């Protein structure tokens, strides 16, 4: 799968309230990347755990974590207000199956959620797949999606009420009001600063945030009531892959289709690291068939 692929979702989902682990969100990102408007409403989408690991540039594949995540996806409630004022409560998936021994997960989207991926007209969010999957924290993923709503807007500064932000991120219970981070400094440290470290310098966006204090009368520390975000979009550089293609074909003896798959599937840093390791083994005369070894190193 092309590392630069972009996925789309209605702004309702970007701002909706739900709890989810980063592993579950990665599975859904891969589903979203496959959804097409002319798909059958009953279509079952297949997600490869190995493909997720490739996009992340990770050699470690946590099969058990994804198996457990599959079991939880169908129970995850998503809720929020629609543009007409209705309050929707539904689930992301109608069914989810982990196919034993294959590393494949099968997901069928719920009928209520599917339109938010296909009936996109004006209010939608465009997300870079590799950037979203590569983020480690679920809070970073959700905040990255929120920032993506504004990256193509003229005014890239916006505010969110602190309570609404916490509800969106699932750190505050919608029924009881119980808050995982009742103190602002905790929320700033464990949620916003973590997201800042992961997003800034590692995705197509950078952002800053500023707490906006309330105007409660009297002495003492004023409470934080809103958070102001300022987003900057980094225009990606166009990379000339022809020298890399030449190396893969002539130096490392891959076929044309194999070289193209490597470039589409792996970040450039990951490709160079693997090729460097192969070069070392070649210099030590440890490789008999360079093409076969290179293909195996990239999982081809």
UniProtKB/TrEMBL annotation:
Pfam families attached to this UniProt entry: Rep3_C, Rep3_N
Gene3D superfamilies per the UniProt record, alphabetical: Winged helix-like DNA-binding domain superfamily/Winged helix DNA-binding domain
Family statement drawn from the similarity comment of this UniProt entry: Belongs to the initiator RepB protein family.
Domain Initiator Rep protein WH1: 7-148
Name this protein carries in UniProt: Initiator RepB protein
Molecular function (Gene Ontology), one example: DNA-directed DNA polymerase activity
Gene Ontology BP annotations: DNA replication initiation
Species annotation: Siphonobacter curvatus
